[in-house]
Amino acid sequence: MMKGIFITFEGIDGCGKSTQCELLKDYLTDNGKDFIFVREPGGTVIGERIREILLDKKNTQMTARTELMLFEAARAQITDEVIRPALEEGKTVICDRFFDSSSAYQGKARGMGMEFVSDLNMAATGGLKPDITFFFDISAEEALERRGKRGEASDRIELAGLKFQEDVRQGYLELADNSDGRIVTIDARLGIDEIFEVIKSNLEGKI
Ligand code: TYD
User: Fold this and answer.
1) What residues line ligand 1, using a CB cutoff of 6 Å?
2) What global pTM score does this model have?
3) What is the pLDDT of the chain when averaged over all its residues?
């Protein structure tokens, strides 16, 4: 049993989760909480190098299996090096994406199989699961529109297109249905403050 609480944020590209991560970080800082914030893939020296390979648009030859294994490798590293030690010390850990991303992106959208990916997720984390996961639900079209407004350059994963993002969303919805309450689905079209209120109310008494 870990002493700290492990919170993850999930959703398709452009769902607005990064904004909410920032709000939660500010909130925890203002309230004097001991926490760390990390992102996947990345968050360690090794993980950031794996991230570069994964997101590099030049890597067009990467197969779905390789992609999956690289995400899992980065995850194994951050779990052992950063997340587990922090939780053992009693810190709150916030992670921008964790293993549900692999289930939705590689398991569902890339067609590797959600159960297969779930087994690999457990192998990569040594069985560690988030205590609570916020899933920001939005359609692929609306998310694309938001990304367009922000004018961000697409990475290799984002290049996969609208149908891919919609499949990812379906993957998340399936995960949420089968998560026994771990995954809290939030309508990402709500206002920024409204969404943050939902997050705070779900974390009440836990952090
Ligand atoms: P990033 O720039 O961190 O995107 P975001 O700001 O949307 O989190 O890029 C991560 C990309 O990698 C994103 O498109 C989601 C994808 N991804 C997977 O396909 N599988 C995974 O297991 C993880 C963690 C991310």
Assistant:
1) 13, 18, 39-41, 55, 71, 96-97, 101-102, 105-106, 155, 157-158
2) 0.96
3) 96
Q: What sign does the dihedral 111-133-75-122 (CA atoms) show? A: negative
DSSP 2-49: -SS-EEEEE-STTSSHHHHHHHHHHHHHHTT--EEEEESS-SSHHHHH
Homologous superfamily, domain 6-203: P-loop containing nucleotide triphosphate hydrolases (3.40.50.300)
User: Given ligand 1 and candidates 9, 66, 97, 158, which is best to mutate, with the most ligand atoms within 8 Å of its CB?
Assistant: 97
CA 152 to chain centre: 19
Give the list of residues 6+ apart from residue 17 with CB closer than 8 angstroms, or none: 9, 10, 11, 96, 134, 136, 188
Q: How confident is the model at residue 152 (pLDDT cuts 50, 70, 90)?
A: low
Domain map (residue ranges) of the chain? 6-203
CA atoms within 13 A on the CB side of 163: 2
